[in-house]
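As a representative case, the lines below give one protein's residues and fold tokens.
***
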Amino acid sequence: MAENQAKVAMETSAVEKQPETRTETKEAPSMVRTKRIMVAIDENDSSFYALQWAIDHFSNLLLTTEAVQGGTLTLVHVQSPFQFPVGPGFPTAAVYASSAMVESVKKAQQEASTALLSRALQICRPQKIRTETLALEGDAKEMISETVDQLNVDLLVVGSRGLGKFKRAFLGSVSDYCAHHAHCPILIVKPPKELTK
């Protein structure tokens, strides 16, 4: 009888140690985090070449499918703030502009930005990818780097104008500055030799 009680106790402990079976409902798979690629656009053909290169090589990250919510392609153009020429022949005290003149110049700058971004959108349209545009004013290097941080950009694409060492030293290079200050990977797309001539 003592043996039977021991058997029963062993069987009970074996049953108690079995894992519980739970019925779980599977939720739909969560969408993969949206990617954001930003391309800097300016008046140079090298920036449009960089845009086309980015579309050709990264469209798989930007397209929406059933399992993946497509990314966003952000096109940014930074317009330099309007300044009157100052220097020899332009005494600072003698240069005064009417508000109508300042407004006229600003309007022309906005129209130029709109035209550039429209041209860039025409390149993106056939790919059917989500695209947004930003027209900013300020120093291009600084504004692009700040915008990268504000929008949590995953990749910044900029074109290289192919400035020589002398021009780069005096003018500064947007791509060089962004490579050191933007807090995301940066891709500098060099144009083919035909565009640099």
